[in-house]
Amino acid sequence: MSNVAGSWKSHRVQKGLVDGIAWLTYREVEIDGAQRAEEGPVLIVANHFGGAADAVVLMSALSRRPRILADEKIWKVPVARQMMDWLGAIQV
């Protein structure tokens, strides 16, 4: 299986971080149809009212490592910029 975004296998620390955050925030998450996002190209759109909850939940729930899009304003905060770069986020 080829995956442009990459596998979590080489990003275990990142996967552990997002899993921990998701567990602390949401004790239980049910994903319907997640198996359809496991192979081939896929675009998942999640709208939120603020924060990064949807990105954390998706990153935790998927077995493949997704790339997330984030507002360019986030990169103006040094600590946030480092975190977003570390996670491989794409600024828009």
What is the topology?
Layout: H1 12-25, H2 53-61, E1 69-70, H3 78-87, E2 90-91
Parallel strand pairs: 1-2
How many helices? The count is 3
So what's the overall shape?
A: globular
Mean pLDDT: 78
Distance between the termini: 28 Å
- Overall structural class, as computed from helix and strand content, comes to mainly alpha
How big a fraction of the residues is strand?
under 5%
Uncertain ranges: none
Helix content range of the residues, please? Answer: 25-40%
Rg calculated over all Cα atoms: 13 Å
- The number of strands is 2
Largest sheet: 2 strands, parallel
Give the strand line-up of the largest sheet. 1-2
In N-to-C order, the SSE pattern is HHEHE
Describe this structure in words.
By secondary structure, this protein is mainly α. The chain contains three helices and two strands, in the order ααβαβ. Strands 1-2 form a two-stranded parallel ribbon. Strand 1, helix 3 and strand 2 form a beta-alpha-beta unit. The longest helix is centred in the first third of the chain and has 14 residues. The mean pLDDT is about 80.
List keywords for this structure.
single chain, 92 residues, mainly alpha, two-stranded parallel ribbon, 3 helices, 2 strands, 36% helix, 4% strand, globular
